[in-house]
Design brief:
Elements: E1 4-6, E2 13-15, E3 27-29, E4 32-33, H1 38-41, H2 45-55, H3 59-69, H4 77-92, E5 97-103, E6 108-115, E7 118-127, H5 141-152, E8 157-164, E9 170-179, E10 183-190, E11 196-203, H6 204-212
Parallel strand pairs: 1-5
Antiparallel strand pairs: 2-3, 3-4, 5-6, 6-7, 7-11, 8-9, 9-10, 10-11
Helix pairs in contact: 2-4, 3-4
Length: 221
């Protein structure tokens, strides 16, 4: 079973603007480069800072970082540290692991997938709300899509498909992807009340792994 641990710092997504024709593009999420080693992943940026606080026994800092993700939570600092240490141990040994978290103020969550000792997938979900809340800054599909298009040009594939929200209301949801030589970026819109936009950055090997995975059997057939 995969272990999923919540990280405790906000998320910053950066895409390089280097030309694909010159060299392979670099894709980063929360300071982590797609394809980087697990050792590097657990030594830098948010997770690196968390591990430093854990190793120093600075439980106050660990709790403060956890509350930056979920202000209403009552985190157990020692539990957080023991779980992230276990994920690091298994991920650096090559086991498939997930490490995730979020940013409360920007209403976004993310999940990193490490496999074979490398970061192979970054999954980001940008939640939206039908009401404006002071201090919160959600990102919407149109803004996120334009940012990707400015960086990478027109998508390799773009289409819409009908979807229904939890209330049964029908919407036209937008989908797009940018296929690279070694990776692929996908943006998926889930419109409607309490909608969201998901951006997935993954290696081509990870994409192929997902498409070849066996589907869950229908228990009614």
């Amino acid at each position: 079973m995969q272990n999923t641990v919540t990280s405790v710092l906000g998320f910053l997504m950066l895409f390089s603007s280097a030309s694909q024709q010159e060299r392979p593009r670099e894709l980063k999420g929360a300071g982590h480069l797609l394809g980087e080693t697990a050792d590097r992943f657990f030594s830098e940026d948010a997770v690196g800072q968390l591990l430093v606080a854990c190793q120093a026994g600075d439980w106050k800092a660990v709790k403060q970082l956890a509350k930056s993700v979920n202000p209403a939570s009552k985190p157990n600092a020692r539990d957080i540290c023991s779980k992230v240490a276990l994920v690091k141990q298994q991920a650096t040994s090559g086991a498939r692991q997930e490490y995730g978290g979020g940013d409360d103020k920007t209403m976004r969550t993310y999940t990193f997938t490490l496999d074979g000792g490398h970061l192979v997938r970054i999954d980001m979900v940008f939640n939206v709300s039908t009401t404006d809340v002071e201090g919160y800054h959600p990102k919407y599909f149109a803004e996120l899509f334009e940012g990707l298009r400015e960086a990478y040009g027109e998508p390799s594939k773009s289409y819409t498909e009908p979807v229904f929200d939890v209330y049964g209301v029908k919407y036209d949801a937008h989908r797009a992807e940018w296929m690279g030589k070694q990776d692929v970026i996908t943006i998926i819109e889930q419109p409607g009340r309490n909608g969201r936009t998901e951006i997935v950055v993954e290696t081509l090997a990870e994409r192929n792994r997902a498409t070849k995975a066996p589907k869950t059997a229908n228990p009614l057939q």
